[in-house]
Design goal:
mainly alpha; 205 residues
């Protein structure tokens, strides 16, 4: 059951990634924050190289798809987001620094908890919460409309939902993942509400 729920969650995340790419090509932007790209790609790569091959074949395939899609999302960032960067001269160096930071964080986490099975799940849910907060910030505080859609918002929330159910039910880390799940759901729901004009107008009063 854990594998089934995780696979369903993974598929919804594939949909979210594809929607980020579709909207990015449409609006000539990248809506995924760069630190999230760095964390996601690093987690996927480290997980795959260290213990991912011991997972089910379907989960390995999904993880490989995530890696490919993250590379495409990263390409969108470098292609389109320079125009919105406050100091374009430092865009590339700043972007590389954030990607390296994401990798160092993930690799250090892996080294510290390498013998603990839930470690990769804890790291991935931390990233999930960060993404939920940053996507909401983009839409609500920064009023960034490009590169986003309701399909992205719902698929992201559903992907997290199935992952939380799978991991909190079948691993002995219920409290942590349940708490992080609540944080994700709260900001995901707020992010979805931002697509409805009445919510935005109410908050602007």
């Amino acid at each position: 059951m854990d594998t089934i729920l995780t696979t369903i969650g993974g598929i919804f995340w594939v949909i979210a990634y594809i929607e980020i790419i579709r909207c990015g090509l449409r609006d000539k932007t990248c809506s995924m924050p760069l630190i999230a790209i760095g964390l996601n790609f690093s987690w996927e790569l480290i997980f795959l190289l260290n213990n991912g091959w011991d997972s089910s074949r379907l989960l390995v395939i999904i993880n490989l798809i995530w890696i490919i899609l993250d590379v495409a999302i990263g390409y969108l960032h470098f292609k389109y987001n320079k125009k919105d960067f406050p100091k374009p001269k430092y865009f590339f160096s700043y972007s590389v620094l954030l990607l390296i930071t994401g990798f160092v964080f993930e690799y250090a986490f892996h080294l510290e908890y390498v013998n603990k099975i839930p470690a990769s799940s804890c790291a991935s849910f931390f990233q999930n919460a960060l993404m939920s907060i940053l996507f909401f910030k983009q839409r609500f505080l920064d009023n960034k409309l490009k590169g986003q859609s309701l399909i992205l918002a719902f698929s992201k929330m559903l992907g997290t939902f199935f992952m939380v159910i799978a991991k909190s039910a079948f691993l002995q880390i219920n409290a942590f993942i349940f708490a992080i799940g609540i944080i994700c759901y709260t900001f995901d729901i707020l992010y979805i509400l931002c697509f409805f004009p009445k919510f935005k107008s109410y908050c602007n009063e």
